[in-house]
Amino acid sequence: MPTQVQVFPTITIPVPYDAIYRRLGFKRGITQVDKRSGEEIESHIDYALSLISLKGAGRRVGLRELTPTAVVLETGDEFRSGNLARFLGGCEEILLMGATAGDAVMEAIRRDTEGEKMTRGVVMDAAASEMADAALDWIAGYYSHQLTRENARLTQGRFSAGYGDFLLENQMIMHDLLELDRIGVGISESCILIPEKSVTAVMGIQR
Questions:
Q1: Is residue 76 part of a domain?
Q2: Cα–chain center distance at 122
Q3: DSSP label at residue 60
């Protein structure tokens, strides 16, 4: 039987400043930022952090079958993706993960980008995106520690809906299996997670 969902109501992680700056287009050692601009960016990042509330969920699910074009789970759900099936080759189990930066920061980003604070909105958007992504790394680390005791490990890298032939519609299955409504994440008819700064991913478990 597949394991139950593990909800993480609060995730605390180091701020991925380098990733945020890369998302903003800065390159370490190449892009020059004057003191005033640097302080302004840092202020915008701090403001975003004050609004971000990281939450997440994880679930281990056994694999029933891998075909050249699909991944069939123990739950009976099916991901139609040859790329994902190849990625999970040799695995008998997968880890599903989801994380969100919360509603408050998304509302602030929307206000700024629609108003007169476009620059702050762009910086906050980058910060929220990278924080949500880093939350997935945190969840993966949590399970990795658990798997070490079982003489198992996670695959290198992870797969997200919308990548290659792993179509966005698979997000609906992941949303349901992870019970993301428990951490305040909904999903639209077009399979977009709400709030926007919410992410999901699949990793394989190898023994």
A1: yes
A2: 19
A3: E
- Report the b/e string of 118-137 with b at 16+ CB within 10 A: eebbbbbbbbbbbbbbbbbe
Per-residue model confidence as pLDDT tens digits over 39-97: 999 999 999 999 999 999 999 999 999 999 999 999 999 999 999 999 999 999 999 99
DSSP 8-state symbol, 182: G
Mean pLDDT, to the nearest integer, of 180-192? 97
Position 121, amino acid: G
Domain membership flag for residue 132:
yes
Give the domain CATH number at 48: 3.40.109.40
Q: Does residue 1 form part of some domain?
A: no
Q: What is the mean pLDDT of the chain?
A: 94
Q: Determine contact, residues 156/196, Cβ cutoff 8 Å.
A: no
Pair 167, 81: CB distance under 8 Å: yes
Closest residue by Cα to residue 140 from 126, 127, 151, 153: 153
Structure tokens at 176: 């349901």
pLDDT category at 103 given cuts 50, 70, 90 is: very high
Contact 137, 178 (CB under 8 A): no
The whole-number pLDDT of residue 26 equals: 85
Domain span at residue 13 reads 6-206
- Total domains in the chain come to 1
Helix H or strand E encompassing 71: strand 70-73
